Amino acid sequence: MGTDLGVLAVPDDVEPGDDLETHLGEAFTVRRLRGPDLFHHFERTGAPMVPRDIGLVIGETGIARGDRVLDAGTGTGVLAASMARAGASVVSYERDPEFAEVARENMELGGVADAVDVRTGDLREAVDDLEPSSFDVLTLDTGDAADVVTHAPDLLVDGGFVAVYSPFIESTRAVVEAAREADLSNVRTRETIQREMQFDDRGSRPSTAPVGHTGYLTIARNV
Ligand SMILES: C[S@@+](CC[C@H](N)C(=O)[O-])C[C@H]1O[C@@H](n2cnc3c(N)ncnc32)[C@H](O)[C@@H]1O
């Protein structure tokens, strides 16, 4: 591995806590990956969801140990891996075969390959083959999510949740309309936005850096 402190040879059997040295004699200590590290260390394909939005998805849907989650598109796989780390078993569809392959490698890196089944394919074409009422939560991060939301009442258990993330308002509106049409309950959308705070010698205030909009999160429930 190339670093700005020299080349680091990382053995296959490396363990957290091990000390390694670059060819220039610079010391590194091995640490176990934690959730937010997935965002920085997974190989990137589809734009990964940021940690705060993952927190919202998990918080709003109550994803917990033992839950079965249907997810699309896998993309980089940060959301899928984070849900698996929270204890869910995840079936995640990715229509781009190369992205799907990278996502499988990312699941290995994240230690959740057993809990995330990355399937190559378009979820819209696969929904009819999935067992009815076999998922607790449906998470969608695709521009065509509205086409899948239509099937949510068939896919979800009674009381299950849908969470749709979209950077754009047009696809968000389509999702809301599809959710209402499908008779899902408590359909609500919130913009996900955060202001970073600055603390310096002159005083404390919100950062003047660009507004932190990342997307719109729509939540609905199958009741
Ligand atoms: C924004 S990325 C998802 C990122 C992911 N949530 C994460 O945290 O890494 C969207 C992905 O969805 C895939 N995609 C779009 N529509 C799809 C569909 N109908 N079925 C399966 N994958 C789809 C795209 O190829 C892309 O990789």
What order do the helices and strands come in, and which of them pair?
Blueprint: E1 2-3, E2 6-7, E3 19-21, E4 27-29, H1 35-41, H2 51-61, E5 68-72, H3 78-85, E6 89-94, H4 97-109, E7 116-120, H5 123-126, E8 135-140, H6 145-149, H7 152-155, E9 156-166, H8 169-181, E10 185-194, E11 197-200, E12 203-206, E13 212-221
Parallel strand pairs: 5-6, 5-8, 6-7, 8-9
Antiparallel strand pairs: 1-2, 3-4, 9-13, 10-13, 11-12
Shape: globular
CATH superfamily: Vaccinia Virus protein VP39
Beta content: 25-35%
Taken together, the total number of domains comes to 1
At the first level of CATH, the class is Alpha Beta
Query: How far do the termini sit from each other?
Result: 51 Å
Unique bound compounds: S-adenosylmethionine
What proportion of the residues is helical, as a percent range? Answer: 25-40%
- The H-and-E topology, N to C, reads as EEEEHHEHEHEHEHHEHEEEE
Number of helices: 8
Structural class: alpha/beta
CATH topology-level name = Rossmann fold
Rg from C-alpha positions? 20 Å
Strand neighbour order, sheet with most strands: 7-6-5-8-9-13-10
Largest sheet, described in full? 7 strands, mixed
Q: pLDDT below 50 for ≥5 consecutive residues: which ranges?
A: none
Oligomer: single chain
Mean pLDDT: 95
Number of strands: 13
What CATH architecture do you see? 3-Layer(aba) Sandwich
Pfam family, one: GCD14
Domain tRNA (adenine(58)-N(1))-methyltransferase catalytic subunit TRM61 C-terminal: 52-198
Keywords: Methyltransferase, S-adenosyl-L-methionine, Transferase, tRNA processing
GO molecular function: tRNA (adenine(58)-N1)-methyltransferase activity
